[in-house]
């Protein structure tokens, strides 16, 4: 996929792909660690309550219900995180040669939720081009969005939102990462993102206007569902 | 009579509240804060013997909170918590001003031992 690049650019791009995979899985594993920690502490709390010395053990119903709710909430949260991790892991599968931009934008929103929360930034999505397909491996699109979002998240003012939209253009689907520019300073567009879009036979356009900054990932070719 | 006073700072509310509950059982007076701003307000408003602080917090990071606490209360010991998953990798994450660092999931007995050591050292 990267035949047209110099050896240095190719090495840097490959490193950026590894970084994308590493950072996103690390973020999910941190969150899973929180889930396990909460379950672990509540197991400990149950043991504390059982160790009161009373026989039979008397535990306040409201307190017990609260602990049960915590177990159930964290089990649901953990299940959702494992599904997310699994979907992301399979985005590199060799046999997957087409990607639905709307689905990948939804996945990106989930993958970036915690990082956005940490920076007090919202990631909003609008997926109009649902069902269209880009003839590239899903991971490449997630990687391109990683590169576009990484710079945007660092510069987006807290309390504001980054919008990711999918649209259909005459040449194919495009994904737009749009953010408020006010107070954000200069945003450096990733050279890796430009190289990656070339490798996907697509283009990267940037637009600065009316207090906003947009990175448009334009992909070539599509097939309707 | 409590053994000492601790402030737990972690954005995972269910973790923070359960820790507070379990520490209270052990005669340790514990309170919690879910972000750096409210944590700093609490530290200024009332005396604590030790602070347990998550490295990753929304808004102001744990490291910035640590620096601000140390700027005002240089003798208040702070134990960091990290979600770093590897068994030994978390030691490298310990900021210089922190008394110690523990990895999640937190073993309560080990945490209490560290808190006691921190309080004793700073008495």
What general outline of chain A do the C-alpha atoms trace? elongated
Helices of chain B, by number, come to 4
Helix content bin of chain A? 40-55%
Order of strands in the sheet with most strands of chain A = 1-2-3-5-4
Quantity of strands of chain A, as a count:
5
- Low-confidence segments of chain B, given as residue ranges, are none
Order of helices and strands of chain B: EHEHEHEEH
Q: How confident is the prediction overall: mean pLDDT of chain B?
A: 92
**End-to-end gap of chain A:** 25 Å
Sequence stretches where pLDDT stays below 50 over 5 or more residues of chain A: none
Q: What can be said about the biggest beta sheet of chain A?
A: 5 strands, mixed
Biggest sheet, spatial arrangement of strands of chain B: 2-1-3-4-5
What is the straight-line distance between the termini of chain B? Answer: 17 Å
How would you describe the shape of chain B?
Answer: globular
Helical fraction of chain B = 25-40%
- Radius of gyration of chain A over all CA atoms, rounded: 22 Å
Structural class of chain B, please?
Answer: alpha/beta
Q: Could you explain the architecture of this structure?
A:
The complex is a heterodimer of chains A (225) and B (123). Chain A has 225 residues and is of the alpha+beta class. Helix content of chain A is 52%, strand content 16%. Chain A contains six helices and five strands; from the N terminus they run ααααβαββαββ. Chain A has helices at residues 7-50, 61-89, 101-111, 113-118, 138-155, 191-199; strands at 122-127, 161-168, 173-180, 203-209, 212-218. Chain A has a five-stranded mixed beta sheet with strand order 1-2-3-5-4. Chain B is α/β, with parallel strands linked by helices. Chain B has a five-stranded parallel beta sheet with strand order 2-1-3-4-5, sandwiched between helices. In chain B, helix 2 runs parallel beside helix 3. The longest helix of chain B has 15 residues, at 108-122. The radius of gyration of chain B is 13 Å and the shape is globular. Chain B starts with a strand and ends with a helix. The mean pLDDT of chain B is 92. Chain A binds chain B through residues 29-31, 33-34, 36-38, 40-42, 44-45, 48, 70, 73-74, 117-120, 158, and chain B through 12, 14-15, 18-19, 21-22, 25, 56-59, 83-85, 104-106, 108.
């Amino acid at each position: 996929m990267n035949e047209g690049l110099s050896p240095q650019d190719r090495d840097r791009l490959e490193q950026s792909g590894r970084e994308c995979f590493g950072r996103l899985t690390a973020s999910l594993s941190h969150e899973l660690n929180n889930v396990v920690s909460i379950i672990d502490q509540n197991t400990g709390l149950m043991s504390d309550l059982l160790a009161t010395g009373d026989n039979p053990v008397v535990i306040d119903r409201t307190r017990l219900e609260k602990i049960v709710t915590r177990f159930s909430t964290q089990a649901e949260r953990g299940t959702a995180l494992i599904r997310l991790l699994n979907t992301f892991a399979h985005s590199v599968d060799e046999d997957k040669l087409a990607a639905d931009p709307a689905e990948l934008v939804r996945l990106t929103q989930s993958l970036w939720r915690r990082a956005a929360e940490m920076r007090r930034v919202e990631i909003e999505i609008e997926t109009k081009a649902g069902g269209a397909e880009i003839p590239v491996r899903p991971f490449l699109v997630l990687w391109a969005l990683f590169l576009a979002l990484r710079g945007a998240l660092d510069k987006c003012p807290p309390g504001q939102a980054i919008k990711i939209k999918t649209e259909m253009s005459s040449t194919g689907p495009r994904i737009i990462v749009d953010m408020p520019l006010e107070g954000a300073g200069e945003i450096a567009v990733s050279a890796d993102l430009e190289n990656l879009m070339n490798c996907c036979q697509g283009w990267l356009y940037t637009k600065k206007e009316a207090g906003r900054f947009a990175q448009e990932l334009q992909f070539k070719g599509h097939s309707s569902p | 009579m409590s053994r000492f006073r601790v402030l737990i700072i972690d954005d995972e509310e269910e973790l923070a509240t359960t820790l507070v509950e379990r520490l209270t059982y052990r005669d340790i007076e514990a309170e919690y804060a879910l972000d750096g701003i409210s944590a700093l307000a609490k530290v200024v408003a009332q005396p604590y013997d030790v602070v347990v602080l998550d490295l990753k917090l929304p808004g102001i990071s744990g490291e910035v909170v640590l620096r601000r606490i140390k700027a005002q209360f240089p003798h208040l010991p702070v134990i960091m918590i990290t979600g770093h998953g590897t068994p030994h990798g978390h030691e490298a994450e310990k900021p210089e001003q922190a008394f110690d660092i523990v990895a999640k999931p937190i073993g309560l007995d080990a945490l209490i031992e560290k808190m006691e050591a921190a309080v004793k050292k700073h008495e």
